[in-house]
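Worked example

This section walks through a single chain of length 169. The input is the sequence exactly as stored; nothing has been trimmed or padded.
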Amino acid sequence: MGSSFSPIEKMLDVLAERHTNYPVHEVLLTRLCMHIQGKLLDNRNKMLKDRGINDTLFTALMTLDARENQSIQPSELSSALGSSRTNATRIADELEKRGWIERKESDNDRRCLHLHLTQKGYDFLCEVLPPQHESLKHLWSVLTAEEQQQLETLSRKLLGRLDEMDSKA
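Given that input, the structure is written out below as tokens.
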């Protein structure tokens, strides 16, 4: 049985034959990264689905937990999640409905709203994190510590180039 990436590799072989100077290796690396990212997200969502949550809601809770006083403004949540303010509002609505966050007015400015992680939300995170951690340890144990460091270094280098390309656009 081939890997889940085999159909993409076959497609690239055909395209390389069909198009002159087709950058097979560069396209392969790009598609491989995208394929792995999709598989990582699918794997994470499968683990979280058993708890009735998805990666976006989980990441929002983790973002709140990582903040001072476990509190954040909706615009900051939107930014942290890389989503629109409308989507961040939808996420906050869902978290509030589950009792995992509360919306509170700022002590300093009544026009300013803050999202606060509730004890129920924190307790939920404490239940979900240990199996998440074990799953991640299992996943990354396929690489040695040196390979993990190499992957991190290469990923950061590639990210730096992408950031550079974004700033020129």
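What to look for: The helical segments are 6-18, 24-49, 55-66, 74-81, 85-97, 119-140, 145-168.
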